[in-house]
TrEMBL record:
InterPro entries: HotDog_dom_sf (IPR029069), Thioestr_dom (IPR006683). Residues 64-134 form the Thioesterase domain. It comes from the Bacteria. Gene3D superfamilies: Hotdog Thioesterase. The lineage of its organism: Bacteria, Pseudomonadati, Pseudomonadota, Alphaproteobacteria, Parvularculales. GO terms for molecular function: thiolester hydrolase activity. This is Thioesterase domain-containing protein.
Length: 155
């Protein structure tokens, strides 16, 4: 697993021990994402592409006993931000739009994995897409449009 490009943001910490040892997770971030997770972030060992993961727990389930669509879409939003890490290592961006197609069930007790890609990175806009899988089977196909936050002196 590669190091965080540009230095690790202060809201992430490396996981020590357990299934996600060596991955990164949110810390000291009293926000919805930390409440909805936990989410884990790493980089593919072969091509160093950003990879995200989420262990589906009982509180993530819908009435049918599988991963709730809202929980999966929150994971997609976090995965989209991790996907833009090569362009925006501090994740200073906002979500403009996300499109999701559910193609399978997310099993409670299972691990979701997502590998995304940047389709286009313009001045402020970044267009991404990816696939969420569970045990190698597709669960969710997504695309997202993110916008970089303006830097000081730039509107």
């Amino acid at each position: 697993m590669g190091d965080w490009p540009g230095g690790m943001p202060p809201f992430l910490a490396r996981v020590e021990g357990g299934e996600f040892e060596g991955w990164y997770t949110l810390v000291d971030a009293p926000n919805f994402a930390q409440f909805a997770g936990p989410f884990y972030f790493s980089f593919d060992e072969e091509d160093n592409a950003p990879v995200a993961a989420m262990a589906l727990a009982a509180h993530h389930q819908n009435l049918g006993g599988t991963g709730h669509g809202g929980a999966l879409m929150t994971f997609v939003d976090m995965a989209a931000f991790h996907t833009i890490t090569p362009e925006v290592p501090d994740w200073k961006a906002v979500t403009v739009g996300v499109s999701c197609d559910f193609v399978g069930a997310g099993p409670i007790g299972g691990v979701l994995r997502c590998k995304g890609e940047i389709l286009r990175a313009g001045g402020r806009s970044l267009f991404t897409r990816g696939l969420v899988t569970a045990a190698g089977a597709p669960v969710l196909n997504w695309s997202a449009h993110l916008m970089r936050m303006p830097t000081k002196g730039r509107g």
